[in-house]
Batch of 4 targets.
Target 1
Amino acid sequence: MPIDPVLASYSDLAYGTALVLYLVALVLHAVEYAAGRVPVAAAAPSTGSQGSVATLAPPEGASRRGVTERIGRSAVALTVLAVLVHASSLVLRGAAVGKVPWSNMYEFTSAICLVAVGCWLVVLYRQRSAAARLQRLGGFVLLPVVVLMFLGGTVLYAQAAPLIPALNSYWIAIHVVAAITATGILLVSGVASVLYLLSTRGGSQFAARLPASAILDRLAYRTAVMAMPVWTFAIITGAIWAEAAWGRYWGWDPKETCALVAWVVYAGYLHARATAGWRGSRSAWINVLGFGVMLFNLFFVNIVVAGLHSYAGV
Amino acid sequence: MVRIQPAIALARNAWRGLTSMRTALVLLFLLALAALPGALLPQYSLNAQRVQTYRNQHPILGPVLDRLGFFDVFASPWFAAIYLLLFVSLVGCVVPRSIDYARQLRRPPVATPRNLGRLPHYASATCTAPPEEIRTAARRRLRGWRIAEREEPGGARSLSAERGYLREAGNLVFHIALLGLLVSFTLGKLVGYEGQVIVLANGSQFCNSGPLAYDSFTPGRMVDGTRLEPFCVRVDSYSSTYTPTGQPEQFRAAIAYQGREDLSTGTWHPYQLAVNEPLRLGGTRVYLLGHGYAPRFTVTFPDGQQRSAVVQWAPVDQATFLSEGATKFDPPGVTDDAQRRTRQLAITGLLAPTAVFQGSLLSSGFPGLLDPAVAIDVLKGDLGNNSGRGQSIFSVDRSMVDSGRLKQVARSNLRPGGELTLPDGTVVRFDGVTRFVSLQVSYDPVQLWVLGFAVLVLGGLGLSLAVKRRRFWVRISPAGLDGTVVELGGLARTEAAGYGEEFDRIADDLLSPWQQRPVPTGVPDQGGVSDADRSGPGVLQ
Ligand code: HEM
């Protein structure tokens, strides 16, 4: 199957555009976060000066909230746009090569980010009633996404190329999509747990602007609960595929082992939530650790530890 | 007697400790931690050569890690200890919970609490309809819930309803299936085997007659190598296609096979063996794992006798398939062993499927077989295959070279058909290249069990995470002329949030048709509202 260089370059263009859009949305969210809903003490400094009071003084509470709300909403709108562009980048790459667009680390990372942002938008939509409070957190989800996509577009970037024989199976559509979906959702979950940990620290201005820790905790739990069966499914289908491709369903290949370790850590997270004395911070730490293992598996194992999965192509 | 009791107490405490959630949690983490070196350190089971390299690079740490089993983590006693403890803990956890669950299924839902207003979800209203009508409507609305109806002192009636029993069922299925998975995984390792063999793709055959037919064979502990599934495979040809940049697109071997019944009749069935498309014969599977090139050399000895050999050379560069190896010859007709050991020949060097020369230095520019060439050294003397040391088929015994008993007598680059004459008049001809495939045969009779349990694990997990166990209570109290007071209470018994929405919906359905004065209160489950304390609308003013 020949590669269509025009489509491939459009795909790259869309990728770059999506990255820039995410970045702008991230900045807007940051402004929204910094400016919005400041507790009384925090609003004080800018009111002190004399001459420029007319322009610098914060407008009356309600209208100021209106402005930050609007900034936040435009950030969300930009994110929606970015997701569409991002998705088209993957679709174009698939079309350029005539194969699934998630067969090397660049494409895989890109797809994970797409799922993560998509998952975040779904969360916002489903929590419409509390959306204003959650919306402000958009930047915290976009931050790892932007970093990952930047790394993906530079260090991990791979030219559009056809599939190697080992990947040429319909299982790539099943196993890899499941892995991508689970990882993307778990990214959101991990971010929620990090924010939870920050919010329980309290004290700082930063923490004071976070939503109540119970909300963050619940967000982390709900997303993890959605991702866990998907991750289980990804491991099982991976084993089924390995049986056909490598001659055994489980062989303690580094990637397999690490996936299992991550699974066990997430099982630990779910258990911790049901164990007295482990709720709260401890389980949040476990969730963060779980995502750490996922990232480790994605980057370190692919790049540094050679295994059967190392065709992932950097 | 006196001494037994403390022993029993100790055992009981140990058992309780072992089967507590907290221990399970710790064991889970230990398992994750213990598995990590298996992913990070080289493992004998994956690549023994890398272990050796690692040991050489870490002369002090390496042997210590080796003694402690870090290069064979998944067969090490400490790893086994952790998962056996987890196994026991799991059994100890699942058995009492299953019994408890069976009891719960037979018990009616718990009685209605006296003060429903204290529950997380609560609503009440005074209705005009008679109690009986409300009771019927409530039962209708709560269809699908398990309901117990009770008469209360003071003339009130109450309904206790509970739903979501499948959660616990799913959870138990999940944990029990996990046990099944572990058992069948281990069983498969005991009764299965794996073997690798290299077969030339020129009509050569492999028959599964016993461990000796393989180049390497890894039997399970209960496999003695007799009674392997009888079959033969003949590799007729092999083809691989590449993109112009050398990225592989397809590997495919045209083979023919004979199953158990065909061996007597001599029937061959054709099959296309490819990556991701193994040949399945009964419970035995044949895989195409890799491929490579085998140069064919013909040696014409000074007395006119000819010998030919095709021996696989090992690909040393997976991108270009530059290969290296050693093809060895015994002088024909020499019966005296001492004589023979001065005149053995070895042809060693490099084979490039697509030759690229830099000066006289050979490398390969492409993995496909477009323009092969070899760069060879011919060595003569004692190959050392009587020395008792293991011989590699891919190289000569360096110590023989170092001790001067094996000497280089010629060096040349050859294309197919090219010849080279040794000082003693022997002629070495490079005839061409034959492809070989490396096959793996795997046998695991219980792998479908593993799959079955894995599916149960997934199903159980899905159920236990998706289903909410929740309770709903209705109290209907006649209030004389005012009508009927209806109180509703709700409690979610598990983590899964979101019961609040469902409760409000049911409460609305129940109360609104008759409602006079609604008093819906209670803490909404959405949580979104509960942070009002932190950033309520008035904060900025
Ligand atoms: C191989 C070891 C184990 C693994 C991988 C594992 C995994 C899991 C997972 C993924 C869940 C989530 C389902 C849910 O939250 O409902 C779960 C729940 C649960 N597990 Fe385990 N488990 C293991 C061992 C144990 C053991 C030994 C016990 C008992 C001491 C136990 C008790 C429980 C309980 C009580 C729940 C329900 C928690 C809840 O309702 O949220 N597990 N387990």
Target 2
Amino acid sequence: MIRVSRVYHDYSGKGQYAVADISFTVEPGKIFGFLGPSGAGKSTVQNLMTGLLPLQQGEIYYEDTPVQALPSQFFNQVGVSFEQPNVFPTLTGYENLRYYAALFALPTIEPMRLLERVGLRDAAHKKAAEYSKGMRQRLTLARALINRPRYLFLDEPTSGLDPATAAEIRELIREQAQNGAAIFLTTHHMELADSLCDTVAFLFEGRIAAMDTPENLKRLYGKRQVHVVYAEQGEERTRTFALEERHALAAFLEQVEPIKIHSQEASLEAIFLRVTGKGLTL
Amino acid sequence: MKALLVSMQREFTLLLRNGISVYMLLAPAILALIFMAVFGTLQNVALPLVVDHSVPAELVGQLSSVAQLEQVADLASLQRRVAAPDAVAGLSFSDQQLLLIVEGNEPADFIDEMQAFVRAAAAAEDTIPTYSSERISARPPLVYELSLVCIFLLALFIGGACLGLNGVNEREHGLLLAFAVSPMKLATYVVAKLIAAVLLGALSSAVCALIIGRAEQALLFAVVAACSIFVTGMIVFLLMGFANNDVAAIGVLKIIMPLFSVVGLSAAFVPEAWHRLYYVLPLYWQYRAIAALINSSPVGFFLTMLFLTSLPWFLLVVWRFIKQTEFRRRLTNSI
């Protein structure tokens, strides 16, 4: 378990906090989604959690060990995938993984098996410089998984991927959680968070604006709606009702010839907009 | 240990796949070849003399043992050759007499000395008398010594520069972050770079020693490279600390390369009494060690001083590198 408690970070040293009062817990076998627009402070929190930034204020614990006291051997259990794919461009995909695997003291996954899982088997012996951005992203993810991490940090893991590959990667991430990894996922893709995360936190201007399971957030902040598509004067029209307006909906259905009726849950993106007053593409 | 070995292997793989590094590695050897082409000729000492076909074969044989002989067909050709711009005397034989032909602008005693030389050669019967020699100068000429020192300094520098370029590449592609969240310690990362750089420097120095005809000293030059480990490390981490891409790295190289060459060498032009000012500089001891090797003098003291004085400078540079790059708190804690 990773426990983050009342964490603040100030790059400038002048009291201008990049992140403030951040508290949450990442449980083993669960995926914690950290959502927010670019510049909200997601990477700052990840860097504080992985020890890349010094902790100025607050507490971060891995089980009973504070992040400041983690020995280097602890990182045998950690996997990190960065938003910018950082791989050796002049090494092949296979060489990149083989080198990284050799840094770990624990048994690792065979690089070729992992490359196959992320769809890079055919490009295994090509230099990473020849990979597309999506391929490098997958290689970075494979590198993060090579040591079967107990603590997995993923920064925009499906960024730049085609829908089919993104689905494959989502499945791979879900598997890691099923195997007991505590996963911290930062993204601004609400669909990814919605489909993967057990808990999500909305980060806005350095603070957590809301945090709960996606279902609870939708229940708390979302408006569930019903769309009725009907024909009028030879044209297809749509009318939307809030789920609470059930009498009005029933009356309307008696007046028109409905073509189709479907319900719609509020999306996380709409909820984020409602909670923060601003969208995700800032 | 495994992390150290694979890191060193990675360094060599990256190096061989980087065109700039490969060309840089060849530079000291090419310079050594040029050195041999220039100084190899200058170091040869021989008396030039032109003879025509009238000179008896026996005398030609005797003269060729002690002079660099050139033969022409007849007297006219001989006279034309003597008149050519280079200083060469001619020898012909007519009416049972040797005729020494000179251009006329030689020093006054040149003709006498040349006559005595030819007479001595002609008087020798079967063999030229044995003779002993004496070096009139204890050391080779300064230009020779400094040129050689430069070649070896370059060989040592290139080892560090190549590994520094690898590091700049790692920095440019954000790989330091990946290392920082791996179990690899900062010490492992630094030592892998140092050993790889020293091996390159040692290999490069040994190759240069072989090219310049000092094969017996190749191992000693490798020892100088080993004792220069922290100087080489300074080059690696100065490059990595100040450059975050290849273009910036070339700029930094343009500054530190002359610096690392000139600082030590400048002592050659400074009075001995002022050398105390250099004692804290490892580059001075590196120069002294290489110069001592070239002159076949003892190097132990210079190597010890090189090792000792370079350590604090190296630690300063690494500290600066850690501050400058993403190698933050965790790795410095786990040294």
Target 3
Amino acid sequence: MEYVARLARINLTEEEANAFQKQLDDVLKYVEKLRQADVSRVEAAAHALPIFNVFREDAASEWFTAEQALSNAPRKANDLFIVPKVVE
Amino acid sequence: MRCEPASKRWMEKSALISLDMDAAAKEAEEANVDLPLGGVPVAIKDIINVMGQPCTCGSKILHGYRATYDATVIRKLRAAGAIPFGKTNLDEFAMGSSTENSAMKLTRNPWDLTRVPGGSSGGSAAAVAADAAFGALGSDTGGSIRQPAALSGVVGFKPTYGRVSRFGLVAFASSLDQIGPLTKTVRDSALIMNAIAGHDPQDSTSLNEPVPDYAAKLGNDLRGVTVGLAEGIHDRRDRPAGESRD
């Protein structure tokens, strides 16, 4: 639990960690139930529609301007987003 | 039982998160009424991007955000003459079934203000039920159009996956999400489907098949029509609600 919390960058009290630990166990136990289903005669369905490998031509086209793309950015400079450092 | 829904004006406040009446009035003045939806006001679930309007998804996370582009469904609605005039309330990021899980406001059921309108497209359902919009767009991942439509006494339609472009819809579960109409009548839903359905290169799971004229197919005799039920889903329909959750 501590490891997951650290990855998500959230601080948990001991009480919260215990509560979430139990909830996480419940979820994992519930997912474990899926193994009980007999799917030996069920065809695997990756997707509802027979659509594969949709490509477009690798050609430049009119799209957002840098100004439009950055219009919601809290911080920006030189046509780039400025974001907090997340790698350690 | 016959009853009247809550007043249109009250529901506008309750069901809509934001309104762009200045832009809508301008569009209405210039509307081409010869188009299939010429000048028709349509409310949009606040999880679909409408250029220049906020898109909160019912969450405080997106406070201050304004869409920089139109979703494909909005572009198509505009091409059919419709006016997307405001954004409707929803459960946060469409995750809920009552519209109580919105960080923005509480939307009531216009037929009974002590009840929920359903969700997550509850604002769209309530706006249509209260006549605050001719029709509305919602999105449905696991019932989010059909269930609020049922609870609010309007028509709701989840199109087959791939029929309507998801480009510009904030994703919940990409392989299940579909945008669809909520309206007063089946014919109105058919008219909106005529406008929004069709292939879109911007959505790689969009179906590249001809689109039927939905409205032209209405009014036929339903005798002899076969309704199919997927057994894997429906063979346990008698199980009491909640049992699966222990």
Target 4
Amino acid sequence: MNIKKIAHSKIFTLLILLAIVIATFTILSNGAFLQPRNIRNIFQATVVVSLLTIGAGMLMISGQIDLSLGGIGTMCAMMAAFLMRSGLPWHLSMLAALVLGAICGAFNAVLVNEFNFQSFIATLATASIAQGFMAVISQGRQIDISDRTFNFIGGARFWDDLIPFSLIISLVLLVLYGIMLKNTKFGRSIYLVGGNADASRLAGLRPKRISYLLFMNAGALAALAGMLLAGRMMTSNTVGITNAQFQGLTAAILGGIAFGGGSGGMGGAMIGILILSTFNNGMTMINVPMHWQSVASGLVLLSALTADFLSSRKRTSA
Amino acid sequence: MSIKSLSRKLLLVSNNIAILLVAIVVILVFYSQNPNFLHDDNIRNIMRSMAFVGILTIGMGMLLIGGEVDLSSGAVAGLSGVLVAMLINTGIPWGWAIVITIAFGASLGLISALLVNVLGFMHFIATLGLMSVYQGVILVITRNVFIPVPNEGFRLIGGTSFGNIVPLPFIIMLVLMIAYTLVLSNTGFGRSVYMCGGNRKSARLVGIKPKKISYFLYINNGALGALAGVIITSQMATASPVAGQTGSIDAITAAVLGGVAFKGGSGGMFGCFIGILLINSFSAGLTFVGFPQYWQIVARGSLLVLALCLDYVISGARSRALEHALRSHN
Amino acid sequence: MSKSFPGVKALDNVSFRADGGRVLALMGENGAGKSTLLKILAGDYFADEGEFLLNGILQNFTSPYSAIMAGISVVYQERQMIPALSVMENIFAGALPKNKLGLIDKPRLKKETMALINKFELSIDPSVPVGSLSVAHQQMVEIMKAYRRGSAVIAFDEPTASLAEEEITVLFKLIEALKKEGKIVIYVSHRMPEIFELSDDIVVLKDGALVTTFITSETTVDELITSMVGRDIGDTYENLSRNTEVGETLLEIKNLVTHDVHNIDFSLKRGEIIGFAGLIGAGRTELVRAIFGANEITSGEIIFEGQKIDFKSPFDAIKAGFALCPEDRKEEGLVLYRSITDNVSIPVLSKIRKALILDRKAEAKLASTAVEKYAVKTPGIDKLVVELSGGNQQKVILGRWTNELMNTKLLILDEPTKGIDVGAKAEIYQTICDFAKQGIGVIFISSELTEVIGVADRIYVMRNGRITGCVDRSDATEEGILSLAMADKDETGGDAQ
């Protein structure tokens, strides 16, 4: 691969962007930003977003979108907490929550594939139903979790307290899904369906089946994300990962997963996630009030979209 | 032939009738559970709660008819409700405060329109981004606390009731609905909205500029969102940082329940009204008969799925009817 | 009043004139250039050269809207209306009468619409939504819309395709009325009796060139058909190296009925090429899609290699050895923004895996073999398909279905030469014959009569979703096939021969 090609690749641009973000905050925070503990915090913050990005990103590559992941993940974490409080062992509770997440995803897939709803409105509807069930399970209050293993999975840290266990989980998953996307039949099919569903079907792929699998996968990953967070907090609260879903979308777009479908990958998404977490963390470090961060994340999404728009315009005019 | 064409005609208007029947049934069921459901106080409460979502639904309904959607309108309402409170609290006369707020809402609508029409973003994702921005701004300026508005004049907007039953905001909503019905059915502009939503290409062929319509719809939606915000702040005499959170979804649900086709091109304000009536009497009824609080959230979420399924079934039946007409001649 | 269009890509130096108060019929085979001509008229396309005069004034359209403003309306087969709006609103769309308040003047709107309806002696309720009307009535509304705009030229694109007999009568009455008003009526149709009943002049196009013009009263059906066909069959087909050994029956279709086709019976042997001829919309594409599992089947049997089969999806069909090159390459054939490699390997992805991971070397070999075999002109197999020419794109699809990992037994080609230049066409014909030599059964759909006759061993002709005849290549003539493909009698169904 020649240098020119690397310099023009999207990943390269993203890495530069990441470097700029890091440099800016390092200067603004007088170096506090680069303290090991802070770096750990940044990584810690990527966990939930990563899992949501994997699910949402693959759906976007296939040409669909899921706005219900925050709702599903929060509800499933609540379910796991509820089951553990009722005396079910941690592994069965987690399994049940994962299955529940997949069922919610399947519900989305039914609405999209059998009733032809547009995916954004179908998943918004699912999100509000999931939120309702979450309220029913929790009765509007957080559920504390005392199971040690569960809390260990979400909250343990190794290596001088620097490497969170959940980070390892999310990294392993990112890599596995990345390999799957690029190197397996299923992964390839996702791109092909996103590029042209009709042609893929006539060439022997089964777009409907792929859509079901992707929605279910995204639901299950959201459930996992919700549980990892709950485990770290040792409690499952009613907000859960609701706000992280938005970041998942943003990271995916930022990382080059195009909205129309058919392109992008986990490598770019990973850097997208890093940029986003770094950015959010940096804002806290330089004492930007919490509430501004919600404004900023919306603006980042819109800028990511604008960048996508500009680069695709360049591509088509070239 | 006449029976067939009659049934086809019925299909085109029937979702209004069907949903009206559903609304009546819902009301009667709650009434049979507890006759106080139709007591003056409760009726007033239902009407009171209808105004906010109702005004949002007007803007959203117009957008949907024209083939667009704006997920930020609830947040626009929330932000406007906060803005009007702050303006009044700084001493600006409440009349001017309202005017400024509505102009502000319109400019937020313009932002949506620009993102969609100039940058070509998909409407739902652009407006989702904006929603997050506005929601954030609300938190920033309120610091997540309520802002009381101790202004008697302003409170009268939300607090006045005619005959002690019909609240003023409800009247405002009704008047607006009638006005927009007139616009939709009696002006060239109104018909253009249907054309843009129904078939953009043929709209262009008769000289309509779809982008222009789209701009108007978003700006209009922003202004109405601001009005809704003003009204809810006035009703509560306080601005709430969470007032608009579910506004967009509720408005979409009401519009689609009321027969506005999700893909654009058909529907009207009467349907929207019934949609709002249904949603609000349903929620009020659930509370009234003591349906568990948290299950109510589930029930209301399911309503949107139900509305979309209804839309799917009806538009499917409609295209089958057309198909049938086509095929019977082959 | 005259118009002329010399030299457009799909139209070569075509000049003719149409007079007010007369009906001009535009005739020709599929691809003769009729629709291009209509689209230039409507302002959808621009002529590269030549001019178009209306009432002696040179017209220069920049958009469909400007064509309409200049007084030209085209009534297309698919309706351009808003189903939820009423009849009167659709007719007056863009020019709704207003009252002093700026509101739509509904009474006046209704009155003016009623005046139009009465003028054309129709019975339509002006205030019902257009979506609730029958197809015929929708078309009437479209015509009234054109008339209301004061169009001087009203063109019809196959207006009777979906109408019943009595509705056609009403339509013709309407066209007569337009004619009396001095309008220019341009009428495109494949139905001979209509042409002779309705038109005053006939313009015949062929391959984008003007063949001849007739005064309708001075010509006959036979003369007309001959003029539409008349072309020498070149050596291209003489030189094809054909398969001479036809094997046992491969595919048998018995009384197949779907949403779009009716009572289809035919059979195909190994190593045989059967052609499907017919006009656009005759149901050929729908038929092969149904066989391929892509469209739903209502009733009937498909027997493949002696077994009755029932495909749920193309996936099943491909597993059984079917392959389809769809008509619309870009929409249905290819994933345009992926590489040649990716497009070739789609159906065999599961065969080039090693422990679930795709074997990229095997995949690349597959693609380069295909590129070599069909001489695809490309700098490399990583090139995006969107950057290839039409002929090369078609070769990529052929490469997909005939690579060594596929076990294609039945190849369906739907208009494989559409939009492809002459040289590439000849290559594709030979490729088709080579498939037959390998014992593959080929179904070859084409709207170009010469190529179906030149390539296929047997030709089935379809019309309105039915097979109306089958001829062997030795007996096939373009005239014969054309008269089977067009309704030359007053019937809308079809009697199989």
